[in-house]
Each structure stands twice: as structure tokens, then as C-alpha cells.
């Protein structure tokens, strides 16, 4: 049975807590900047409890690993599964500096996350020269049998700026 405290944590209105969403995105942006310093593409993601606690953050490692699927979101989801020992991440929130592409959205759906928060939009990512399948995340989930709560454009200007400063064709 849940204690009162645990119940509070489960029912916390993270979706409407704009300060919390900004704080989460700031943590993920720090990880993105570590990725850039390590020569990686400007994307990162994290997995959080609704009560605020961070399970993990991870940046994109496509270049370092030479693996096309190593997007920030997939790395964070994989690592959260490893750390928690669960393949079912229901109750947790995926926070990403960029709108999840269909591969990342599908991985989030498989992991059953309760929510997705993203910064830069699909069109911001394309503007910075990163090709993605042009299917907005909300559109993807309209066709899926699970629908996490989705909150986009959190710290969008900062996430977009980091994309534009690290354009794909800049190197
Ligand atoms: N959302 C997202 N889009 C990308 N496009 C290229 N890499 C990435 C990534 O890691 N995340």
C-alpha cells in the first residue's frame, strides 16, 4: 500500500509544474553540453520521477559509437532500464532536449513512460541540419496504443540555440 508520501509522489502534477519542467530540462542541457565537449551531436535526454528525482541523463553517442540508433533518448531509456532492472518504466518521465524522432518515440512507447517533455521542435532539429523522419511526436502517438502526456517547447530557445551553434554542416 502506498504511504501518503509515496501517494503524493505518484500524483504530483508534474505536467503543470513549469518550474520543475525547466529544472529537468536544465539538467539535461548540462548533459548535452558534456556531449558537445566530447564531440557528440547536440542532443541529450533524461528519465525522471514525477516527484523530481533524476534516474539518469545521457547524451547522443552516434558519432562515438558509430551506431545510428544511439540517440540521447534511446541511451537514457536503455540506461534507466539497466539501472532500475526493469523494462517497464511506467510512472517515469522522459525529458529530451529535442523532439523525439519516431525511433525514440517507439522506444519510449515500448518502455511505457508516462510522460514526454521536449525542448526544440522537429522543425528546429531539421533547421540545424539534422535529418529526421518528419513525424511529430504527438502525431506518432496518435497512432500508438499508448499515449503518454506530452509537453513540448520547454526551454525551446536554449535547446534551439545549442542545435544551431552545433549545426550538422558546421564541422
Ligand atoms: N531527438 C533527437 N533527434 C536526433 N537527431 C539526431 N540525433 C538525435 C537525437 O539524439 N535526438
Please describe the topology of this protein.
Layout: H1 4-11, H2 18-37, E1 44-48, E2 54-59, H3 62-65, H4 72-84, E3 93-98, H5 102-111, E4 115-120, H6 122-127, H7 137-142, E5 149-151, H8 156-165
Parallel strand pairs: 3-4, 4-5
Antiparallel strand pairs: 1-2, 1-3
Bound molecules: guanine.
Categorize the overall geometry: globular
Count of individual domains? 1
Number of strands: 5
Q: CATH homologous superfamily, by name?
A: Cytidine Deaminase, domain 2
Name of the level-1 CATH class? Alpha Beta
Determine Rg (CA atoms, Å): 15 Å
Note the main sheet.
Answer: 5 strands, mixed
**Helix percentage:** 40-55%
Helical/strand content category? alpha/beta
Q: Total number of helical segments?
A: 8
State the low-pLDDT regions, or none: none
End-to-end Cα distance: 54 Å
Small-molecule binders here are: guanine
- Which range does the strand content fall in? 15-25%
Helix-strand topology string: HHEEHHEHEHHEH
Which architecture does the CATH hierarchy give at level 2? 3-Layer(aba) Sandwich
Mean pLDDT: 93
Strand order across the largest sheet: 2-1-3-4-5
Q: Provide the CATH topology.
A: Cytidine Deaminase, domain 2
Protein name: Guanine deaminase
GO molecular function: guanine deaminase activity; guanosine deaminase activity
Enzyme class: hydrolase
EC number: 3.5.4.3
Search tags:
binds guanine; globular; 5 strands; alpha/beta; 15% strand; single chain
Could you explain how this protein is built, in words?
The protein has helices at 4-11, 18-37, 62-65, 72-84, 102-111, 122-127, 137-142, 156-165, and strands spanning 44-48, 54-59, 93-98, 115-120, 149-151. With 171 residues, the protein is α/β, with parallel strands linked by helices. It has eight helices and five strands; from the N terminus they run H-H-E-E-H-H-E-H-E-H-H-E-H. Strand 1 (44-48) and strand 2 form a beta hairpin. The relative contact order is 0.16. It has one domain: 3-Layer(aba) Sandwich (Cytidine Deaminase, domain 2). The mean pLDDT is 93. Strands 2-1-3-4-5 form a five-stranded mixed beta sheet, sandwiched between helices. Helix 4 runs parallel beside helix 5 (102-111). Bound molecules: guanine. Residues 41, 43, 60, 71-73, 96, 98-101, 104, 125, 130, 132 line the site of guanine. It comes from Crateriforma conspicua. Keywords: Hydrolase. Its EC number is 3.5.4.3. InterPro entries: CMP_dCMP_dom, Cytidine_deaminase-like. GO terms for molecular function: guanine deaminase activity; guanosine deaminase activity.
Amino acid at each position: 500500500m502506498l504511504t501518503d508520501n509515496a501517494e503524493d509522489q505518484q500524483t504530483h502534477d508534474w505536467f503543470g509544474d513549469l518550474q520543475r519542467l525547466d529544472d529537468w530540462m536544465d539538467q539535461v542541457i548540462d548533459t548535452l553540453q558534456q556531449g558537445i565537449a566530447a564531440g557528440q551531436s547536440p542532443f541529450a535526454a533524461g528519465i525522471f520521477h514525477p516527484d523530481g528525482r533524476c534516474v539518469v541523463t545521457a547524451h547522443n553517442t552516434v558519432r562515438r559509437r558509430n551506431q545510428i540508433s544511439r540517440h540521447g533518448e534511446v541511451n537514457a531509456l536503455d540506461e534507466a532500464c539497466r539501472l532500475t532492472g526493469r523494462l517497464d518504466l511506467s510512472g517515469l518521465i522522459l525529458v529530451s532536449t529535442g523532439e523525439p524522432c519516431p525511433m525514440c518515440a517507439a522506444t519510449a512507447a515500448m518502455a511505457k513512460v508516462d510522460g514526454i517533455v521536449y525542448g526544440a521542435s522537429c522543425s528546429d532539429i531539421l533547421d540545424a541540419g539534422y535529418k529526421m523522419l518528419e513525424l511529430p511526436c504527438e502525431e506518432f502517438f496518435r497512432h500508438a496504443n499508448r499515449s503518454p502526456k506530452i509537453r513540448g517547447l520547454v526551454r525551446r530557445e536554449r535547446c534551439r540555440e545549442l542545435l544551431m551553434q552545433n549545426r550538422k554542416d558546421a564541422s
